[in-house]
Design brief:
The protein is α/β, with parallel strands linked by helices. Helices cover 37% and strands 21% of the residues. It is built from seven helices and nine strands. α7 links the parallel β6 and β7. α1 runs antiparallel to α2. The relative contact order is 0.15. The structure holds S-adenosylmethionine (SAM). S-adenosylmethionine binds next to β2, α3 and β4. The site of S-adenosylmethionine has 26 residues, from β2, α3 and β4.
Length: 207
Amino acid sequence: MRANDSRLAETIAFIARFYDSRKYGYEGLEGYRKSADLRKFTFIIEELRRLNLLRRDRTVFLDLGCADGRVNLLLSYFVRKSLGIEIDSLILDEYEPRKQALIWELEGMDLLAPPGNISLFAGSSLERLTYDRIAEQTGIHFTDVDLFYTYITLHDLFGEMIASNARDGALFLVYGFHKVLPRYDGLEILIPDVGSQSIATLYRRVG
Ligand SMILES: C[S@@+](CC[C@H](N)C(=O)[O-])C[C@H]1O[C@@H](n2cnc3c(N)ncnc32)[C@H](O)[C@@H]1O
């Protein structure tokens, strides 16, 4: 393994430990808030990279309910743009201070700082206006998104929205189901158990 690869792997493992020691699981104003397990996520990322489905120079990622942006932060090292939308602005307010605390620790350990390609937005992922704001501020439209993500939240409505409005071949990563997998009209299951963690399924929009 090259030195750069091992530094990246160390950085990612550190970030996973950092956020996994600060997990949430409670009923909030906008439904259930629960944090994905970032250690498991590292295996998901590994498989997506192996299949060339995550490209640092190309991929646009969107977390449809990003909370404190922890998945955005982890993914930022592997994509061109890491976008997130969070309906509860108090939860979104946790993003900056937590990221700063993380960066401070990364610097102390001579690990890699996040590449600065993250943009998070307050609003609803179900509203057109939110995407208009994202396009205004980043130049990225809904049809530019390569990989959508949700941790169970509104997965059925997001599945419909992606089937209706995303580009052909767009991917939808759904975290939180095992064994009995949801089906969405217009999306096919590409990988039933991404990263072999019994937690995430990858769907693809078919035309
Ligand atoms: C289960 S948490 C997932 C957090 C994070 N994506 C993760 O995987 O760790 C779901 C989040 O979605 C937010 N949410 C719920 N409805 C939403 C909507 N319509 N638009 C954007 N965010 C929403 C909730 O406030 C909550 O923070």
